């Protein structure tokens, strides 16, 4: 059971209603996490920076690699909502993460995401050496910043025990 309620549209301020309407217009729905975050517009806006940063790193990583990166972070962080969200994306692409043959770049991203979650103070130097073989410092900073927003999203969902969205329930593990 969620610790924080979801914003009710009828009781929301005009700015919150605008954000809800925008999400539904752009995505066809608004997630439980976003309805929870909308209790605090600055918090909502901070975590919505995930989207422009996602577009930035997709330009040099590709969408599939970004999805693998997010899934690895979310599963390592044990975030039900985010891991199921990315499991849905992968299943819809007919990709089994556990048996997929990743490219070298995808593999290092997955290892980097997991290392950040496991111990951000001690990401192995060899991981950075491998990152630098594929991406420049600006790109590595963008990848890292994106990972931290992904982790923040994981933590919001876990700490506040945001309810799993109904449309994701079919994608939970058996």
From TrEMBL:
InterPro entries: AhpD-like
Domain of life: Bacteria
Stated name of the protein: Alkylhydroperoxidase family enzyme
Organism the protein comes from: Kineothrix alysoides
């Amino acid at each position: 059971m969620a610790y924080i309620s979801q914003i009710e549209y009828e009781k929301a301020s005009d700015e919150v209603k605008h954000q809800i309407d925008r999400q539904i217009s752009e995505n066809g729905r608004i997630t439980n996490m976003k309805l929870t975050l909308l209790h605090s517009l600055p918090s909502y806006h901070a975590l919505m920076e995930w989207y422009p940063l996602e577009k930035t790193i997709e330009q040099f990583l590709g969408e599939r690699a970004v999805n693998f990166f997010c899934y690895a972070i979310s599963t390592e962080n044990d975030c039900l909502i985010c891991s199921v969200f990315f499991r849905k994306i992968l299943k819809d692409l007919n990709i089994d993460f556990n048996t997929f043959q990743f490219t070298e770049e995808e593999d290092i991203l997955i290892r980097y995401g997991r290392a950040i979650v496991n111990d951000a103070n001690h990401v192995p130097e060899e991981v950075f050496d491998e990152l630098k073989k594929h991406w420049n410092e600006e790109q590595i900073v963008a990848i890292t910043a994106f990972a931290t927003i992904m982790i923040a999203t994981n933590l919001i969902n876990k700490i506040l025990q945001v309810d799993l969205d109904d449309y994701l329930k079919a994608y939970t593990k058996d």
